[in-house]
Amino acid sequence: MTDGSAPSRPTPAGGEHTPTRAGHRRAPTGPRRWLAAGGLAALAAVVGVTLAVRGGAAPACAAPPPRALPAGALAAPPLGGTVHTGRATFYDSKGAGGNCSRPTAPANRLYVALGPDEYAADASCGGHLDVTGPKGTVRVLVMDRCPECEPGHLDLSAEAFARIADPVQGVVKVSYRAVVNPPLPGPLTFRVKEGASQWWFAVLVGDHGNPLRAVEVRQGGSWRAAARQDYNYWLIDSGAGPGPYTIRVTDVYGHRATATGIRLLPGQVQRSTVRMYGDTAARSATPSRSPSARPSPRPSASATPTVTAPPGTPAVVDAAAAPPATLAPAPAGCG
After folding, report:
1. Averaged pLDDT score across all residues of the chain
2. What's the rounded Cα separation, in Å, for the pair 223 and 54?
3. Disulfide-capable partner of 154 in 78, 88, 187, 223 (CB 3.0 to 4.6 Å)?
4. From CA 121, how far away is CA 114, in angstroms rounded?
5. Nearest 5°: CA angle at 152, between 149 and 156?
6. What pLDDT does residue 272 have?
7. Residue 96 CB partners (closer than 8 Å, separation 6+)
């Protein structure tokens, strides 16, 4: 999770982890700086020399040095249903939401961490993969980053790994593909980051199904693009005003939905009334010049928000029914 400060960049915590011996994943280790590519290469060389001197084999599930991408290749998430092959290990996030900044791990605990090339600076967050191993196939949510994993190395949750292989194996060969338009758990959700104000704005979008391409906030009659951060928040560094906000979300396959009534309620998960795709609400939410495509009137502000999260998890409130936010003074150094 992030540290909630503004306007300095939050430091992800709890999601990034280090592979350990087969079947014994270590819990997340908290914030740390990632080594530059040259540092990783030097570290890999030192490890290789040490192993050669000892004359012993590396542990079965130890990650090899990161592979260089082919010339001209760019880091990108798995997309389009193309089948990839590789290997899988497992770890336990201990309920944390990973480097994608989810408030918690998914309730079914079926998730995956990807290496830097496929995590692609958070571009894969919120997408899903179907992973097939010796025992069958499991669908997992992309939730985390595995800094030591090379392309093709999936670090599954312990529960997901157990669906496709015997955990005592520790590491197994797998094939996997991105899931295009997976069933949605509900309408889009929005979480405005702790420390946000009318002068500094960051939002986390949830329940979008496919990886996202763009998030925009309407200001002064025009759309203003938010910048994707590698911890999965979308940032407007100079702020987006006091709200309520109209937010337009576009995924990598071109689905687009617009949510209204998102309020300045830092740290609370707000549920909108529109889905990213798959039903009439999502289609009607697609921006159009036609007046008939305008969002339907919001429920009365006197409506009581419905708390759907289990004890110990953040409450999810109806965005349109949330009370007005109290504006905070501008943090030092903001806009």
Report:
1. 73
2. 60
3. 88
4. 11
5. 65
6. 97
7. 1, 14, 15, 28, 104, 105
Q: Distance (Å, rounded) from C-alpha 256 to C-alpha 251?
A: 7
Closest CA to 271 of 307, 219, 311: 307
19 vs 210: CA distance, rounded Å: 27
CA 42 to chain centre: 30
With tokens 């697609």, the residue in question is 286
> Which one, of 199, 275, 203, lies nearest residue 232 by Cα?
203
Gap between the Cα atoms of 271 and 95, Å rounded: 22
- The Cα–Cα gap between 298 and 76 comes to 38
Phi/psi region, residue 160 (left: phi>0; alpha: psi -120 to 50; beta: rest), is alpha
Query: What whole-number distance in Å separates Cα of residue 75 and Cα of residue 21?
Result: 27
Residue 220: the pLDDT is: 85
pLDDT digits over 139-175, tens only?
999 999 999 999 999 999 999 999 999 999 999 999 9
Q: Residues 5, 11: contact at Cβ < 8 Å?
A: no
Residue 112 dihedral angles phi and psi, to the nearest 5°: -145, 150
Whole-angstrom Cα distance, residue 331 to residue 109?
37
| Radius of gyration (C-alpha) of the chain in whole angstroms | 21
Distances (CA, A) of 220 to 148, 241, 319, 329: 44, 10, 21, 22
Instruction: Classify residue 41 by its DSSP letter.
Output: H
Structure tokens at 217: 């906030």
Strands 234-236 and 201-206 come out as antiparallel
Contact 309, 315 (CB under 8 A): yes
State both tokens at 184: 């949605």
What stretches of 165-239 adopt beta strand conformation (E)? Answer: 172-178, 189-192, 201-206, 212-219, 222-225, 227-228, 234-236
- Nearest Cα neighbor of 208 from 179, 242, 230, 182 is 182
Residue in the block written with tokens 């979308």: 234
